[in-house]
Amino acid sequence: MPAEAQNSLLAPAKKRVDPYGFERPEDFDYASYEAFFSRYLVVLTRRAMKWSKLLKGNNSIQKSLKDMNRTFPDNVKFRKTADPCLQHALYNVLVAYGHHNKSVGYCQGMNFIAGYLILITKNEEESFWLLDALIGRILPDYYSPAMLGLKTDQEVLGELVKMKVPAVAELMERHGVMWTLVVSRWFICLFIDILPVETVLRIWDCLFYEGSKIIFRVALTLIKQNQAFILEATNFPDICDKFKQITKGTFVTECHTFLQKIFTDPGSLSMATINKLRETCREKLLSQG
Fold this sequence. Notes:
Layout: H1 3-10, H2 30-56, H3 86-100, H4 110-121, H5 124-138, H6 148-164, H7 166-174, H8 179-188, H9 197-210, H10 213-225, H11 227-230, H12 236-245, H13 250-253, H14 255-262, H15 271-287
């Protein structure tokens, strides 16, 4: 998480608005959140100090990355009354990217990702290049017209669940629930509006550093941690509802612990395994037309 975003977390926030500008729901559990955040501040401070030292010293990190009204309607910074209104910056970034990558242009989901990038960087150019890194390098074919990369990775997740949480895979098959029905927004929005803001940002840190396998680690952790709960489902709608519920609660709010879990709970998960599954799943999708 960028230092500027961390600093904003330390500053007092309006009661109903979080540090990123998102309005909190009426039933927001302030007591639990404050208990969590009092512990998380220690982590943020420690990480801020480490990043400060890293960025000041010599290091090997290469600086290689030198329909608007419906985007975040619950965020005060994207409203027309805001000054500045981030809708303008979002529009600029998306139009620029559409010209830059004509094979993609604009695709559903890109506005939310670009919006998050603008919220954190507060800089159009930096947001543009980070968006380009995600769409062009880390998540190829996720946002192309056919969305073949996105469809492929949803099928890959299904195969990984068969390997690592077979009881859940069997439940899905028995009730004819396709993975795209329950996880498509996880992939296309990179967990935006699915998981809490702090958790999403920590996931994105790992995504930029380690690549797309992080998405599978997050998805597998959510499923594995909630296996018993998911297996209580007895029909199609119930399964879909369970998958909505597992993205809420203390487990996903405690972002530091959650991030530690994604590297332990799924077990071994190599890119070689993922790429092999991608090849198989892509061929299957192409054969189906």
